[in-house]
Amino acid sequence: MILSVQNICKTYLDYESNFKRFASWFSKNKEEKNVKTVLKDVSFDVGAGEVVGLIGQNGAGKSTLLKIISRTLKPSSGRVTSGAKISSILELGMGFHGDLTGRQNAYQSCSLMGYSKEQIDEIIAYIEDFAEIGEYFDYPVRIYSSGMQMRLAFSVVTANRPDILIIDEALSVGDVYFQHKSFDKIKEFKSLGTTLI
């Protein structure tokens, strides 16, 4: 197994207002009256090279589960076990800083993914070419359209083939041309043994 999800639960405290949330920080009564359960005892294993789709209604917890698998959100209980290199596009522009250029954001994102500056220097041309955003690569991301943000995000996470690639609805934005180009890249990864979720 390349990934094992074991008894994942995720709960949140549900406050009626921001004031009540703020007031709870100072309250001696730590009773958790308004607990919202998003995920309860979710378990499954994924083998190397498998393709797994999560299906459910809005609010079912699909995105929450993907964030937990990607290690950007901690579960309330349970655990995710994987020694694999995981890359993910969970939310459009997630992790991008609006005042930084596309190039600077690419460097920052790759650095957070564990790449050295030398490794990033080797793949930055791929990111720029694959994104196909031209001179905007050196403009602040805050002026990007949602499609341009998706192009940059996808180019960053696919610059090196991960063991597991997680995509959560990000490819639903942008133009048809880039969607096809992205799906071709995903097919290439699948043929090379990448696990897709």
The CATH architecture classification of the largest domain is 3-Layer(aba) Sandwich
Number of strands: 6
Overall pLDDT score: 91
Strand order of the largest sheet: 2-1-3
Helix content: 25-40%
Elements, N to C (H/E): EHEHEEHHHEHE
CATH fold title of the largest domain: Rossmann fold
Description:
- With 197 residues, the chain is of the alpha/beta class.
- The protein has 2 domains: 3-26 and 33-84, no CATH class; 89-196, P-loop containing nucleotide triphosphate hydrolases (Rossmann fold, 3-Layer(aba) Sandwich), CATH 3.40.50.
- The chain contains 6 helices and 6 strands; from the N terminus they run βαβαββαααβαβ.
- The strands form 2 sheets. It has a 3-stranded antiparallel sheet, covered by helices on one side. A 3-stranded parallel sheet has the order 4-5-6, covered by helices on one side.
- α3 (102-112) packs parallel to α5.
Sequence-ordered SSE layout with sheet pairings:
Elements (H helix, E strand, L loop, with lengths): L2 E11 L4 H7 L10 E12 L15 H8 L7 E5 L4 E4 L12 H11 L4 H15 L14 H12 L6 E4 L8 H16 L3 E2 L1
Parallel strand pairs: 4-5, 5-6
Antiparallel strand pairs: 1-2, 1-3
Helix pairs in contact: 3-4, 3-5, 4-5
